[in-house]
Amino acid sequence: MNLLPFGKLPAHKPRSFVPPTIDLGDWAQIAPLFDQLEARAAHCRSAAELERWLLDWSELSAALDEEASRRYIAMTCHTDSPEAEKAYLQFVENVDPQLKPRQFALEKIYVGHPQRGELLKIRRGELPEPQTEMASGTRSARPSEARYAVFDRDVKNHVELFRPENVPLETEEAKLCQQYQKLVGSLTVNFRGEEKTLVQMGRYLEEPDRNLRQETWELVTQRRLLEVETFEDIFDRLIALRERIARNAGFKNYRDYAFRRLGRFDYTPEDCTRFHDAVAREIMPAVRELQETRRRRLGLDKLHPGHLRPWDLAVDPQNRPPLKPFAEVGEMVSRTQKIFNRLDSELAGGFRQMQDLRLLDLDNRKGKAPGGYQQNLSESRLPFIFMNAVGQQRDVETILHEAGHAFHALAAQDEDLYAYRSAPIEFCEVASMSMELLGNEFIEEFYSAADANRARRTHLEGIIGFFPWMATVDGFQHWVYTHPGHSRAERAAVWLELMDRFGGEVDWTGYESARAHLWHRQLHIFLHPFYYVEYGIAQLGALQVWANSKRDQAKALSDYKQSLALGGSRPLPELFAAAGCPFRFDVATIKPLVQLAREELKKL
Ligand SMILES: [Zn+2]
Fold first, then answer.
1. Is 12 helix (H, G, I), strand (E, B) or coil?
2. 516 C-alpha vs ligand 1 centroid, how far in Å?
3. What is the full DSSP assignment across 236-257?
4. Cα angle, residue 159 at apex, residues 153 and 162 outer, rounded to 5°
5. Which pLDDT tens digit goes with each residue over 66-94?
6. CA of 375 to the centre of ligand 1 (A)
7. What is the Å distance from ligand 1's center to 368 Cα?
8. Beta strands 382-389 and 194-197: pairing type?
9. Which of 232, 283, 587, 599 has the most CB atoms lying inside 10 A of its own CB?
10. Distance 33 CA to ligand 1 centre (A)
11. For residue 301, how far is its CA from the centre of ligand 1 (angstroms)?
12. Residue 495 to residues 132, 252, 399, 513, 530: CA-CA distances in angstroms?
């Protein structure tokens, strides 16, 4: 029984190493391929032979990745199917754990290979060169010509950071992260006689009735505050573990280790600090202005004291009912198609192809996992989009966003090295976030002129409002991991300073403790340390693509598509440059982008 929404997909390239009939869920059939690769490495006596070896390894990795994706897709599309669940768990439990050490063994063989230096002499050839010149003053302006330079750098980094003594520490870390997730997931409140999760309570913050908003906000906040000690305790233990992991790997603090581990070769902690400063200087005035508009529209200036409170931030300031972009998913797809038709014929063709191949599962129905994602089918070199659309503006943002990721996968299709068919997250999100902004230009396909402007306004406000929170979360972690032995009180004081700097004009009087512990609800701080600034970096890129399109839409789109086609074959500054964006997060870069956003907001 086929539990996948799509049927047989066209092969992008026939296999040359992996047997066509292999069962990729059976480790006994997979292991011999790894044995072969390990044995063959010793016989690679030229760069060409080593390259062939890399491409065979790449073919195997892509086939395994696609197998895992297919099982994941089937499971999330049919959470009520025992067959889909079994197939998924079989892979996770029996193949994945075997796979990791075998992949790592091949990485080590590669790094120690005598032909590696020769391989690095192979220059890039067949792939298109980026057309855009680097902005002057940007780092790494000289493109690295070596075809395998990025791959080599990443594999070497991975191998160098590995310490066997960190394996048990990482297991402990994962357990603590799980404790955090379990705790957050278990929190409920009793609201008017009914037990509700905190996620379920979220929608009340969008209610026009201010007293209701305050009541529900207080309920949720008080529930979280009961767990302050537990959250602090989990975090203290995580910090201690992470400091040990970093020291074992030879770093003086966890921040420096995390930068390397996240593959941040092209920006430094100082660049992040400059980013925070630029947000304070350039974005905070816009945030304050938006908050002031919100305060007036909510009619708070007639009250005494007429301040914006924490429960006033999510409601529509004019008390309008939610936007209704579409009634049925079919309608959402056809209107999104029309947006792409107006934007670019090539992208439109890509979205059309996804429909023809049934690479979209978008409706909300019983037996489907929550949320949305875009997944690459790495061997077919095709994207798949999963969503639970219910007819909200949020769904329109999501389909445009995920389509941007899908266009990235389609654009990089002809790249033969598996590792180069996807880019670092800082740039992946440029692909998707740009598509939200570019697609929004034609959002009248869903709305009347007035509603279209309302949707654009909400979207732009969200973008501006994200930067200060990003700076707060990032700045906090920079401090935490460079101040070993700090106390909980010192930590809270630093968080409060950041809230003063980046919180704007929201009145927290009477809720000081909630404010000091607000970071407890940001799961990245616990689960994915330092992984957050990426979204700020990408959002700057997306705003830049949008700004470019206001000047010259055809050129902006052509740069965008060319940069997507590079996949992950270039360092970040080159990917950004190809898309027509400077890879900088300073005042000079941010200033004109904020100015553009403010001018646009005035028109809406
Ligand atoms: Zn995304």
1. coil
2. 30
3. HHHHHHHHHHHHHTT-SSHHHH
4. 135
5. 999 999 999 999 999 999 999 999 999 99
6. 11
7. 20
8. unpaired
9. 283
10. 33
11. 38
12. 41, 23, 35, 12, 15
